[in-house]
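Please, why this fold?
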Amino acid sequence: MFSCSYIDIVYLLPLHCIEFTVYEFHQQVVSKAQGPSSIWFHQQVVSDAPGPSSSLHIRNSSNELDCAVSLLQLAAQSEQVTQATRVGNGNEDVGLEVQECSRPSEPHPSFEEVKSFEDFCILLDRVDIEHELKADVRVGYYKLCLYRKEFLHPEDVYSKLVVGLIRETVKIGDEMKRCKLTTVKEVFEKWNKNLKALEYRGMKVRFLRDKLITLARLVLESEGAADIKQHTEATNECKRIKDELKKLAAKHNELTESAKKFEEVSGALKQKVERYEVRFKEVANRPW
């Protein structure tokens, strides 16, 4: 007969739960997935410049299971952040209880009712969850929702995961706004992977993926892509040379100081050496 101790059960049960959750995510993702696991990122982006066409192929490097695992990690991070917030406040329950928001009894109010940030209330099953988000995250999420005139988070998941989804969405949106012409392809691939995982979990982030496509095209596939690449390489090489010159200048100063010290020593001994040389010549010039 198979037997296991209480410790074995406590250790194995969480692993079984994680395995079951990953399997559940995998089944959901497979049912939603369309096309092969490696797709053309917005099909094919063809440069307007003459010459051989270059296509932007940002791989969907994470398969469906990767998306599920990423979302599980996101949920775990949300749980850790929430627990850290409770410990930092010096209590575990007081003041952190989920409070009902003064909103209508419908599942989620229409965004048309939101006239300003003061009216913005993040609800999940008619429960206010915005106390679990930092102020800057709430403001960022408000701006995204205001742009789309709708709430972006799903209603069919538990609050800790929704909090993590909102944080990640705002983070990616901010990073995209700060990107530059020098942003590399790998960064666009990372954003696409994370946005796709968010979309699988129900976040309405298609507009961010569309913007990502536009940014990637401008950086990697536009007429100026070659000039941008050459400019980046030249800038990096110039920086490398300047850094090398700084090192050489520091070495030059070090050698100059050393030369001065030895020159002082040489000057101090010069007269003695000259006297020794005179005596030596006197001896050398004596008759046999």
